[in-house]
Write a structure and sequence with these properties.
Number of domains of chain A: 1
Radius of gyration of chain A: 13 Å
Distance between the termini of chain B: 40 Å
Number of helices of chain B: 0
Oligomer: heterodimer
Strand content of chain B: over 45%
Strand content of chain A: over 45%
CATH superfamily of chain A: Immunoglobulins
Shape of chain A: globular
Helix content of chain A: under 10%
Chain lengths: 111, 126
């Protein structure tokens, strides 16, 4: 059972917009920034969004993040076949002397 | 190019020990906190441990506390994870990840993992 809650799966057709939610609590998302990671099949995770809504250089602007209260969302617009991957949210948690927490991951399928 | 390369994974019996290494290059290693994150086969990501730039602050997940020890050698640009009393449930790919941080308004710290290494597989089985 992951501390951050994500839907296990999401899907969309090419060109569509999809969103992935991430729900936490006051000790993690509620008081710290949220990051999103993309893991393509058979590869290491890669930073997609940091500090709730910031894109690292090289990440297309089709990817966007937002946060409100104790929840966050990742939106992917103009869905492409190469976006098929697992997506994870993560945040620092201030409880228990501090630790990182991850969502369980969302497998995105491009139909 | 910023790069992290893990090594040291392999097959070990339950109750055994293993030491993972992560070699860093392309950045000032001594300026960054570092982390270990693992992923069991077919499962999601699980944070394992963090160590601050000067080793002053160390954190562990409850699942490994008392069995795993994180350390670093800034002179060698290397991060380590000593794993003792290994269990079947420790079987996973272990990734090292750099943790950039930015001090924000108030006491908030903005932090994230970037980049990640390619991972090293640890299999605990008899």
């Amino acid at each position: 059972q992951s501390v951050l809650t994500q839907p296990p799966s999401a899907s969309g057709t090419p060109g569509q917009r999809v969103t992935i939610s991430c729900s936490g609590s006051s000790s993690n998302i509620g008081s710290n920034t949220v990051n999103w990671y993309q893991q393509l099949p058979g590869t290491a995770p890669k930073l997609l969004i940091y500090s709730n809504n910031q894109r690292p250089s090289g990440v297309p602007d089709r990817f966007s993040g937002s946060k409100s209260g104790t929840s966050a969302s990742l939106a992917i617009s103009g869905l492409q076949s190469e976006d098929e991957a697992d997506y994870y949210c993560a945040a620092w948690d201030d409880s228990l002397n501090g630790h990182w927490v991850f969502g369980g991951g969302t497998k995105l399928t491009v139909l | 190019e910023v790069q992290l390369v893990e090594s040291g994974g392999g097959l070990v019996k339950p109750g055994g020990s293993l030491r993972l290494s992560c070699a860093a290059s392309g950045f000032t290693f001594s300026s960054y906190s570092m982390n270990w994150v693992r992923q069991a086969p077919g499962k999601g990501l699980e944070w394992v441990s963090s160590i601050s730039s000067s080793s002053s602050y160390i954190y562990y997940a409850d699942s490994v506390k008392g069995r795993f020890t994180i350390s670093r050698d800034n002179a060698k640009n290397s991060l380590y994870l000593q794993m003792n009393s290994l269990r079947a449930e420790d079987t996973a790919v272990y990734y090292c990840a750099r943790e950039p941080t930015i001090a924000a308004a108030g006491k908030m710290v903005i932090r994230w993992f970037d980049p990640w290494g390619q991972g090293t597989l640890v299999t605990v089985s008899s």
